[in-house]
Amino acid sequence: MEASRYKSIIQGTGLLLVTLMLSGCKFALLDPKGEVGVQVKELIITALLLMLIVVIPVILMTIYFAYKYRAGNTDEEYAPEWSHSTKIELVVWIIPIIIIAVLATITWRSTHHLEPSNPLVSENETLTIEVVSLDWKWLFIYPDQDVATINYVAFPKDVPVKFVITSDNIMNSFFIPRLGSQLYAMPGMVTRLHLVANEAGDYRGFAASFSGDGFSHMKFTATAMPDQQSFDAWIENLKSAPEVIKDFADYRELAKPSIDVPVTYYSHVPDDLFHSIVMQYPGGMMSDMMNKGTEGDDKPNHHGHDHQSNQPMKHEMNHSDEEAGHHMAAHGE
Q: What stretches pass through the bilayer (predicted)?
């Protein structure tokens, strides 16, 4: 009995110490620095509070009944034949059903509202950054600026960023917790994630899916710069970097598996590098066409859906077919 008591004290003390240590940790999802992250936090807290409406009473009643009907309490009524109460049945069924209905409604609305591919509403023009998951590093390509980086990405605060994501190995997941949603990176497929930083600063990003030996080293820094001028100056400085990716052969060299890769800057990349990476895989053509077909989503559309023409899509399909033919011919297929 005495040994059991000491064991309980030791376990309780250990749990308290662990709790105190964890209290010093910052939980990124609950400390968002971007518009999408703030909305995700609000959704998490709302769902948690709604579920606690059921959880807290259950915990309290468990403690209450355990105390009230303890073996030493002989004053309470003993009713072994009792088996049903309409009032209790109504409470334990109706309240959870209402909560589930409310949660379902919130989830339905937020799922559409927080859809990663939806452009963010802003007065500032969207910045496009192409992201490639590699073994075991992240390649960030700035197509409009003609530069690229490894394991580092920067953008101005308050400027919407469209991350166009793919993978050149196995499936992975791109995640900057303080800015918002994570999104899968898949070979031969293109996914789009729109985020914005409301505060300047450095934010941790990483691969959220296991992808082999170097998985734990797939980390990067995302820097939200104070203003557009700071970002433009950074781009100009980057353009003087000695490293360049001249062609796809250079890219294949840097894409070789490597672990704990330092931040690297490239002052030039081929215009079609991201497209070429996607097109290596079956289904890459269709995914790339779908991505190109939605590039205009980030710009205001003053004509409405009824006035859109199908001609640009036809042109894009013909263009992609042509490129696919050259690609296959080059490989002797």
A: 43-67, 88-108
Rounded Cα distance, 221 and 201, in Å: 10
Q: Which of 6-15, 76-85, 141-150, 318-327 has the lowest mean pLDDT?
A: 318-327
Strand partners for 222: 153, 203
- CA dihedral (246, 249, 251, 254) positive or negative: negative
**pLDDT tens for residues 77-97?**
777 788 888 998 998 899 999
- Cα separation, 298 vs 42, in Å, equals 25
Task: Write the pLDDT tens digit of every residue in 51-67.
Answer: 999 899 999 999 998 88
Determine how many CB atoms are found less than 10 A away from the CB of residue 291: 21
136 prior amide bond cis, ω within 30: yes
Domains in the chain: boundaries: 27-69+88-114, 127-296
Q: Provide the residue type at 180 as one letter.
A: G
Spatial separation of the C-alpha atoms in residues 104 and 143, rounded to whole Å: 40
